[in-house]
Structures are given as C-alpha cells and as structure tokens.
Design a protein that fits this description.
By secondary structure, the chain is an alpha/beta fold. It has two domains: about 10-175, 3-Layer(aba) Sandwich (Rossmann fold), CATH 3.40.50.1970; about 185-385, Dehydroquinate synthase-like, alpha domain (Up-down Bundle). It has helices at about 20-25, 40-45, 45-55, 70-85, 95-105, 115-120, 185-200, 210-230, 235-250, 265-275, 280-295, 295-310, 315-335, 350-360, 375-385, and strands at about 10-15, 30-35, 60, 90-95, 130-135, 145-150, 155-160, 170-175. Strand 6 and strand 7 form a beta hairpin. The chain is globular and about 65 Å long. Zinc ion binds next to helix 7. Zinc ion (ZN) binds near residues 192 and 265.
Amino acid sequence: MENFTYFNPTRIHFGRGQIAAIDGELPPRSRVLLLAGGGSIRANGVHAQVLKALGGRTVFEFFGVEANPDFDTLMKAVVLARAEKVDWILAVGGGSVLDGAKFVAAAVPYAGDPWEILQTRGSKLQSALPIGTVLTLPGTGSEANGAAVISRRSIRQKLAFIHPLAFPRFSVLDPETTFTLPERQISNGIADAFTHVIEQYLTYPAHAAVQDRFAESVMHVLIDEGPGSVKSPTDYDARANVVWAATWALNGAIGAGVPQDWASHTIGHELTALHGIDHARTLAVVIPSLLDVQRPGKGAKLAQYAERVWGVSGGSEASRIDAAIERTRAFYESLGLRTRLRDYSVDAATASEVAGRLRARGLLKIGERGDITPEVVERILRQAA
Ligand code: NZQ
Ligand code: ZN
C-alpha cells in the first residue's frame, strides 16, 4: 500500500425526512443560491421540502442546469451569485447539479477566466463558497467528493477539476427523493457507481486488503440490490443500499493508497463531448473492451475479481478472466445499458477521433501503469464498435 492522506470533510444526513437537517447546517442569516436542474425537484416535492427547511433565509434560485452541466449556463449562475453576494450554494438534484454547484462555488471568487479552473484541473484554486447538497440521483459520488465535471458545448469539451475546497460541507441523502427517477437514470447511476469501483480496484495488487474487500462488497451490494431497485423503484431498503453504495464507491475510501486507472472515464468524457452519450453509457461501452485489451497488466486483479465478485472457478485463468469480462458486460446490459458503440449509432471512426483529441491534450500515457497511449485508446474503441 502506498502512503496516503485520507480526507473527507462531508457530513452526511441519511434517510427519510433528512432534508429538514438543512436548517441546522446553514447560518440563519445566510444568502443562499439554490441550484437545480430542469424541474424534477418541483414535480416530486423535494423543492417544497427544501424551501421549508430554508425558512426565512434569503434564497435565490437558479433552475436549468442541464445533464452534463454546461459552462455557459453555469456562468449565468455565477453572475447572479456575484450580483446578489450569496454566501452559500445549495445544490438540489443529480450529479450534474452538484458538479455545477462546485464549479459556481469555485468560479464566484475566482479572479481570472473561470474556464482556467477546468484547464488547470483545479490546481490553482484558492477559495470557494461553501456548498451543501440534496442528492436526488445516486451514482456519481459527487455528494461526498471534491470532483466536478463540466461540459462546454460551444467548443465540444468536457473537463474535470478536483480540489479539497470543492467537497460539500454537508449532503442530504434521502432515498425517497430518488423514487421518481426514470429507469434510464437509476440504471445509469448504478452502472456509474459500479464502474467507479472498477477504476480503483481492477488495476494491480497493492496489498491493500481493506480497500480490496471493501471494493468487492460495494460491487456485491450493487449487483445484489441494483437490478431489483430498478424494477421496484419505491422499495426503500433496496434503494437505500444503492444510494449508500454509490457514495462509498467514490468518496475516497476504496481508492486510498492504491493504484487507480480512470482511463475509461477519460475516454468516456470524450464520447459524451462528441456524441452526447450519457456518462454511464460511455463507461458500459468502454469497460468490457478496456479490460480485455489491458488484461496483461490487470491479470492478477481480474482473476481475483472473477473469483470474489462473480464466483467464477475452475478452468484456466484466461477462461476465468473471459467469464468475468462477459459477466461485467452482462451486468451493464441487465441494467438496460447497451455496451457497443453501434448501439448508440456511433461507428468505429470515432476511435481515431478520440485518440487524436487525447493526443492534442497531451494525454499520452493514461491508466494505472501509464501504458494506455492514444494508439491503445484507438484499439479499445475499435474493439468496442
Ligand atoms: O434536471 P432534472 O429535471 O432534475 O432531471 C434530471 C436529469 O434530467 C433527472 N433527475 C435527477 N433526479 C431525479 C431526476 N428525475 C426524476 N426524479 C429524480 N429524483 O435525471 C437526469 C440526469 O441527471 P444528471 O444529474 O445529469 O445525472 P448523473 O447524476 O448521472 O450525473 C452525470 C454527470 O456527473 C458527472 C458526469 O460526467 C455527468 O456530467 N460525473 C461526476 C463525478 C463526480 N463529481 O465525482 C464522477 C462521475 O464519474 C461523473 O463523471
Ligand atoms: Zn463516473
């Protein structure tokens, strides 16, 4: 295990009725910018609960943060926040709204062009407004991490930043707020969370027994509870386990002190920027093929994954790994996520386009061993066609 500093400052209020806890989190005289998406929180009563908890505080509202939150939209919220001198950002929605809130919180006090925050991956941030969140879509882990991914459609870019100042101070996780999710969105969330575990676990052995066993149990919970929670959206206990599993998949715990890959996310963000494919669906396309192409370096962990997560035994190691990759593909498909580029009307020519874009950004060596070059990216995507 490598040396690490484990840091997670987000306080979680989990369970039914916990939106009321906002009242104890925000100073009574705070000026709050409530950030939201297209309106799902109005339809399902979450907005009304939030306003009740905010009581007499001064609240400004900004609706319209889209899926894959857009820089130009968010800059309008930045203008509003600066003009009204807000001192807290409250995100109410899915990962896109939460990520958007992190960007707005960082951009409001930022002296230069806020796009630099993305171009420098957050490395120059010195301050940010405090953020609270009410999560209505489990999956991204944004409720308890310091990362945000922002799209800029006008120049077809999708970039991430990460900084300790971007952690929410608190997050409310009431599984009942997720009952109204369409099947496509909850399936996406489960697949996204599962892939976050893969990114931090399917690398090479690091003698990190706690992280390994913990990662395996998060995957088991998603496999055991995920499909049922898609079919029975109002089953509280199943959904509660999905929500909590997704938080632990990307709150820093299973990734502490271990090698991490993140190539499927880097490639996937390009597929979203170019073709508008949902984030989780890009991962479902890339992962089966990436695991196959990268099996020389990932073999030991793939064999462990086959045995401990999918219960595959007998036969040669190569055949067990084949089976594990096929089970992974089948898991995505069982959730309703198609796993080939052609399923999204994208042809193999995108492989060289994505490789070229990564080359242009200087991303010449990604993955846990730095052995995923643009040429390898192209091979992975051709195999995913
Ligand atoms: O906009 P509204 O009306 O709220 O509708 C949303 C949106 O259309 C809807 N929705 C959310 N909660 C709902 C609901 N509909 C009914 N009932 C509810 N309770 O769901 C749609 C999708 O929402 P979105 O927030 O876009 O989805 P998700 O949570 O999957 O977020 C995806 C974004 O997060 C980024 C992705 O790249 C993508 O931009 N990620 C962020 C990460 C992070 N911060 O750590 C890591 C991830 O790997 C990921 O990259
Ligand atoms: Zn993800």
